[in-house]
Amino acid sequence: MAREIWKWLGIPLIMIAIAAVIVIYSVNNPTDSIVARMLTYERVFRVIREHMGLLLVSMTGAIIVGVAGGIMLSRPSLYRIGRVMETFVNIGQTVPSLAVLALFYTILGLGFNVAVFALFLYSILPILRNTFAGIDGVEHNIIEAARGMGMRPLRILTKIELPIAFPIIVAGIRTAIVINVGAATLATFIGGGGLGDLIVTGLSVHRDMIIVNGAVIAAVTAILLDYLIGKVEERVVRWA
Amino acid sequence: MIKLEGLSKVFPGHNIPAVKDLNLEINEGDVCVLVGPSGCGKTTTMKMINRLYEPTGGKIYIRGEDALQMDPIKLRLDIGYVIQEIGLFPHMTIEENIATVPNEKQWPKDETKQKVSEVMTLVGLDPKVFKDRYPSALSGGQRQRVGVARAMVSDPPIMLMDEPFGAVDPITRARLQNEFLRIQERMGKTIVFVTHDIDEAIKMSDTIAVMREGELVQHATPSDLLSAPADEFVSNLVGRNRSIKRLHLIRINEILDEVDRAKPASEDAKIGEVEKQIEESDIRSVIVVDKDNKLKGVIGVSDLKRKSGEVAGDYCQDVTDTITSDATLNDALSVMLECGEGYVAVVNEDDQYQGTITLGDLLNVVKEEG
Questions:
Q1: Minimal Cβ distance to A141: which of B75, B87, B101
Q2: CATH 3.40.50.300 is right for the domain spanning B2-250
Q3: Which of B261, B194, B196, B250 is closest to B222 using CA atoms?
């Protein structure tokens, strides 16, 4: 049992330790007074909190809307729209995240909420597409067997289609999270806060140490979340 | 049991009906095989019975009840369904797969478990070994068995089977067919069976419905179909070698008593006696059995020279392949051809020797029946 837990938590703990060492070292050994003023524990914790806030709110919304939307579009009555949607999502993904933020700034103005909304919209795309593709990819004969044996459409969705599509849906969520963590560093440009604050501050005062702190924490967050979701998925999907 | 009356199906966007004005009556406990070239409407007909396709015209009666007025979900829950690609659910264990219909019917858990393990045993899968496996860990033949078990678990009176033995090699297919016939003999279900393979149709059926371009050409017993094909299409379908196809209709145990052949030698028989027996035998060999009448091997003329010893057991060679007495004569023929021998030893399930069938016996049957 202890071994099992270590196997799960080993890599995350190492990642967190690396980030912690870098933060503690830089806060305690500032290269000059500017770094000392700009890089404090309070500030680091504040931007991490803001970043997690951006991530949590936008991802929760994106998962709910993306999965629900993907399921709806995979139903026979909306299937044609779903196919068209796939194309548009693929085009949508080519728009840079910075452009998305800029776009919403011109429409909705500044602030945390606008940043969350932009991230939310941007993260829906991979989840929506993967949910649709995952359900669409369930072999026809499996559905037919289920129908022929007398399963109702809702039961087929919950017992057959969603479980089989699950790994693909999760892959979409992982993609969205990694993109989201990166894109959230741009929220600072429209006053959304987050780890981007450190990076932009560092850039403007030409202090690499501050940039490194922001970048490392963001990278560790992305790797960590991706890893943990992957582990949970491994646990749930035993049949593949 | 099942009565189709003027059944038609026109798919939207098609001018030509997939099935038109089909009348067919299937008696309780019969296996009715729908056969015909691809695109003849046999699968469409079958899928209308459990209303996966809604007919565009005509009536379906199941035990006198109008199936088109019934709730399709209820209708399907009482009709076993096996499809060509089997359609096992990859994310469920074998046990969960087979329990699909009981779960939909919300049976108590214990009863479901009990029934699943019964039906697994019935189709020849050890529940202890297989119930927690996933379909990806099974061979093609095992998956087919699971497919059949899944359709039979709730003991539906009617089963629809769409080329259920299509995706396996010929030898496994013959074995599955024989096993299925053995189960069917006990269960007596009413079965609609779709295939494009006329040999399978002749072997499996009580009646055969030949279809062409959405129409029923002939509905008859396999024997009648072979002796009196309705038109050229049917006679082309059954092929020129109709007398050979009769071999599908006869089981080995039906002729085994009639064939008169020398007794097998016991493994401790003196080799001198055995030599005499071999010379008298029409297959120039003698089967050797042990005390429990279990098949031990065979001695041919050449084996006498090659080996040495006092008793028959010292000389005997392993038998390449055997056959059970519930297999058809056609199965016996394929085993002979595969082994390159003019005979095949017949054994029962416990490997006990029952007799020997030779190529000559098959020829005699073909001559008599033809």
A1: B87
A2: yes
A3: B250
Contact check, Cβ <8 Å, A149/B104: yes
The total number of structural domains that make up chain A: 1
Cβ contact, residue pair A148, B160, below 8 Å: yes
Bridge partners of B159, per DSSP, are B80, B191
Q: How many residues does chain A have?
A: 240
Q: To the nearest whole angstrom, how far is the Cα of A142 from the nearest Cα of chain B? A: 4
Is A239 in Cβ contact with B134 (below 8 Å)? yes
Spatial separation of the C-alpha atoms in residues A39 and A62, rounded to whole Å: 32
What ipTM, to 2 d.p.?
0.79
Q: What is the pTM for the complete model shown?
A: 0.77
The secondary structure element, H or E, covering residue B297 is strand B295-300
Residues forming CATH 3.10.580.10 domain(s) in chain B: 253-369
Closest CA to B195 of B175, B182, B210, B206: B210
List chain A residues with CB under 8 Å of B75: 150
Residues of chain A with Cβ-Cβ distance to B84 below 8 Å are 141
Q: How far apart are CA B121 and CA B112, in angstroms?
A: 14
Residue contact A237–B76, C-beta within 8 A: no
Q: Give per-10-residue mean pLDDT for chain B (370 aa).
A: 90 89 92 90 92 92 90 92 85 94 93 93 91 91 90 92 85 86 89 90 90 91 86 82 76 78 77 80 81 83 75 78 83 84 83 84 75
